[in-house]
Amino acid sequence: MIAATGVAMVQSADIMILAQTISDARTERDKLGRMALVPTMGALHAGHLSLIELARKHAPKVAVSIFVNPTQFGPREDFNKYPRPIEDDLAKCRDAGVDLVFNPPVEQMYLPNFFPEVHLDIPNLSNVLEGRIRPNHFKGVCQVVAKLFNIIRPDVACFGQKDYQQYLVIRAMADALNWPTEIVPGQTLREPDGLAMSSRNQYLSANERERGLSISRALFAARDEFAKGIRQTNRLLATAQNILLDPGNQGRVPLSIDYVAAVDAQTLKDIQVVSTPTLIAVAARVGKTRLIDNVMLIP
Ligand code: PAF
Question: Cβ(161)–Cβ(294) under 8 Å?
């Protein structure tokens, strides 16, 4: 059953509460005890469902937030076209046994008298990689995650490692501010052919999807070289770049690289030789769709 203010859908003996206002979310959360939160922007796929499963291992009650947060999108990004299949998302949450869904409208989260300049920033972690290409992205992410944490007060929150930098930034924010929420990373889920699952994959045409596969192929090739003993990141990155820019692929659908980087997995600083856990990260545009992915190298 989905119980919201005035709406109920019967499915099983379990009740899933749908809260659309902050005050309802707070009231319902208070009834639920230890809770793990999976923050999402909706368009849920198997990757999100695996985070819900992970959340369940950490707490008896699971909440999912579904909110396409305007403050983390740049002016020329896909905020308006971002998919919002809310009925489908609610059904997936209900089937996954979620206890509370928080799905506020934008005006609940950002009241007219909201101070947009109130930000949390962790420049060392958030100005590199994604932050260099999307300048205010992490300010928006930290802002909304802080708001979600203050509303839901989760004991645990789960974030996928496809957005590894986001996970690290949020973990640092929670640590720095002594928030009691434990930040737990979840593995990247992939399609059988290797493409990292993402809500944005649905923008891709068949040709673009095929072209987008070169991102995971490039990362896997770098990982294979590392497994064979190569430690110089310039060699690993050259291997990845050659696959991404293979002229045999370029003709059909263009792919443009935003970055291919090898960074220390804790500091996100560029590294030359892999001697500590290292993230190889790629961001690229295939047609109009921007995709990111990464692999971790553990020496
Ligand atoms: O990863 C996402 O879906 C979003 O960045 C998040 C964490 C839900 C904040 O809007």
Answer: yes
Could you tell me the pTM of the whole model? 0.95
**186 touches ligand 1 (CB under 6 Å):** no
Which pLDDT tens digit goes with each residue over 101-152? 999 999 999 988 888 788 899 999 999 999 999 999 999 999 999 999 999 9
CA of 284 to the centre of ligand 1 (A): 19
Taking the C-alpha atoms of residue 94 and residue 87, their distance in angstroms, rounded to an integer, is 11
Structural domains of the chain sorted by starting position, each given as residue range(s) with its CATH number in brackets: 7-186 (3.40.50.620), 199-293 (3.30.1300.10)
Is the CB of residue 145 below 6 angstroms from any atom belonging to ligand 1? yes
Helix or strand holding residue 40 (H, E): strand 35-40
Q: Which of 136, 141, 152 to mutate to test the pocket of ligand 1 (most atoms within 8 A of CB)?
A: 141
Question: Per this entry, what is the length of the chain?
Answer: 299
Report, in this order, helix, strand and coil percent for the chain, each rounded to 5.
40, 20, 35
Which of 45, 48, 58, 119 is catalytic? The answer is: 48
